[in-house]
Amino acid sequence: MRARNERASKGEGTGLVTLVGGGPSDPALLTLAGQAALAEADVVLADRLGPVAALADLPEHVEVVDVSKIPYGRSTAQEEIHRLLIEHARAGRRVVRLKGGDSFVFGRGGEEVEACQAAGVATRVIPGVTSAVSAPELAGIPVTHRGVSQGFTVVSGHVPPGHPTSTVDWSALARSGVTVVVLMGMRNLSRIAEALVDGGLDPATPAAVVADAARPSQRVVRATVAAIAEQAQEAGVGAPAVTVVGAVAALGA
């Protein structure tokens, strides 16, 4: 079964690499197309933030490879992931690259497609439920709300404000009037909040951190943007977490 909106290209051999966005860890939020791809897989390269519980239902012959990237810990190099995808596909296997959220939202899915296509390996992409929207939603926070927010911006917080490699204009975000959703920003949350306030955002603007979304351990910390980093630290909240900044963060409390 192929997703209706798949991206496919013909390549060497009979193998195929399918990128599956697994959603926010709960197997129930994995799409039907994603489930079908797993059911057909010979090899699965899985991330720790994907719906790993879904792997328990795979047939015994399916090879599961853990290619997790643990922040500031054990990590599989992206080049090694590319090598494994290409190697298995060239051997004629149906390979599923299972990720958390959506493969094309800070998931390096685009890089993996490019690497496979450059090697002549056929690919397809099955979208997933991104944590940028689903994590706040699971905490009762809409990223848009009539009369409150007419839009939202999703940014990576992996690189702190002011870093030479940062391309995010935090001052522009502070003045944008839309909800700001930050992924991978827990380590730099204090600096991010400071940059937004320095850029003109009212320090009293509501903010929320949603950790372990869709898991039994899900937690939500709410505070003003000026206090959210300190409150999250005091609550012992860490990654994986999504931060929401804007008036909508006060909703659903």
Verbal overview:
The structure is a single chain. With 253 residues, the protein is an alpha/beta fold. It folds into 2 domains: 16-129, 3-Layer(aba) Sandwich (Cobalt-precorrin-4 Transmethylase, domain 1); 132-250, Methyltransferase, Cobalt-precorrin-4 Transmethylase, Domain 2, CATH 3.30.950.10. Helices cover 24% and strands 20% of the residues. It has 7 helices and 10 strands. The protein has helices at residues 32-39, 78-90, 109-118, 131-138, 170-174, 189-198, 228-234; strands at 16-21, 43-46, 63-66, 94-99, 123-126, 152-156, 179-183, 206-211, 219-224, 241-245. The strands form 2 sheets. It has a 5-stranded parallel β-sheet, sandwiched between helices. Strand 8 (206-211) and strand 9 form a beta hairpin. It is elongated.
